[in-house]
Amino acid sequence: DTEVTQTPKHLVMGMTNKKSLKCEQHMGHRAMYWYKQKAKKPPELMFVYSYEKLSINESVPSRFSPECPNSSLLNLHLHALQPEDSALYLCASSRSGGLTNEQFFGPGTRLTVL
Amino acid sequence: DAKTTQPPSMDCAEGRAANLPCNHSTISGNEYVYWYRQIHSQGPQYIIHGLKNNETNEMASLIITEDRKSSTLILPHATLRDTAVYYCIVRVAGTASKLTFGTGTRLQVTL
Question: CA B100, CA B89: separation in Å to the nearest integer?
Answer without folding.
Answer: 7
